[in-house]
Amino acid sequence: MKGFFILMVLLPFFALSNTKVGLNDSIPNKGKLFLSSAITIGAYSSSLLVLQNVWYKDYPQSKFHFFDDGKNWMQMDKMGHGFSSYYLAKSVSAGFAKTGIDKKSIWVGAGTSFLYLGTLELMDGKSSAWGFSWYDITANATGTSIFLLEKLVFKKQYLIPKFSFMPSPYATYRPTVLGSNLGQQILKDYNGQTYWLSIPMGVLTPKFNKFNWLCLSFGYGVDQKLVGDQDQYLQFNAARQYYLSLDVDLNSIKVKNPTLKKVLSAMNCIKIPFSALQLQSSKLTFRPIYF
After folding, report:
1. Does residue 114 contact residue 140 with C-beta atoms inside 8 Å?
2. Where are the beta strands (DSSP E) in the chain?
3. In the 8-state DSSP scheme, what is residue 110?
4. Which of 238, 247, 227 is nearest to 173 (CA)?
5. DSSP state of 151
6. What is the pTM of this model?
7. How many CA atoms lie within 13 A of 126 on its CB side?
């Protein structure tokens, strides 16, 4: 469910990042800078306020404490933290880049992402139902670091984090934990989620430079995982899943229509359905279409 509140922060900056860059965008634009700052502060504050009243209010507060959840959910929740931190940093940075502050926007994006998700951890640390997790902080830092490497070192996007979801049959056994409807299950049922890293083929070999929109994609998911710290529940035995598939970098597709370009850019965090090889419990399976 917390992913919903992260998206509340992401969406305004997806809009900002798609604004047209003018010839003088290397010169700070005070009006745009004020607008971006106002949206940042407003989204940051309002989402935390909503989170406090919707997510935490039903659970008693406690003294600040730590929680060791490194083995929970076979690290699928950590994948979500890394994914969210990367795209939050990317979208905030893109929004501020339009204000003309150049490289400073990269650090603004990275700093905002890490600070926002770190604030959620501090709130967890004061809730008796959870606790402050260093594993979550590490996952947040990993996603932010990938963004920084992309912008400051590689100067190009070599790794594209992506997400896909297919409804699983396991949510019906624990609807309060895994979700009672499709919207909740997308956020809570790790059995249906897959996290991917897509690499443009042109990065792997110059022979594919003309087809740089085509990507090789590596995925990770879980199956039959119904309890965070237990691998067995009822008749189910949890297992990790690894995938090898193809994907499309939508940002590399040349389109003239600016609206279509914005839509493709916003959708580039979603894995395109393709055939895939699935490795689970030493068994290799071919999936004709997997999403």
Report:
1. yes
2. 160-165, 193-200, 214-223, 232-233, 236-237, 239-248, 274-280, 283-290
3. H
4. 227
5. I
6. 0.88
7. 10
Sequence letter at residue 5 = F
| Mean pLDDT of each 10-residue bin along the chain, 291 residues long | 52 49 55 78 79 75 91 94 92 83 87 92 88 94 94 88 96 93 90 96 81 93 95 95 97 89 89 97 96 89
Tell me the HSE value of 41 on the side-chain side, using a 13 A CA sphere.
Answer: 6
Helix axes 76-97, 134-148, angle to 10 degrees: 40
Both tokens of 180, joined, read: 């009672």
In this structure, are residues 144 and 86 in contact, taking their beta carbons and an 8 Å threshold?
Answer: yes
Q: Please state, in angstroms and rounded to a whole number, the distance separating the CA atoms of residues 53 and 48.
A: 9
Q: How far apart, in whole angstroms, are the C-alpha atoms of residue 47 and residue 4?
A: 10
225 within 8 A of 190, measured Cβ to Cβ = yes
Task: In whole angstroms, give the CA distance from residue 132 to residue 82.
Answer: 16
Amino acid at 197: L
| Overall size of the chain counted in residues | 291
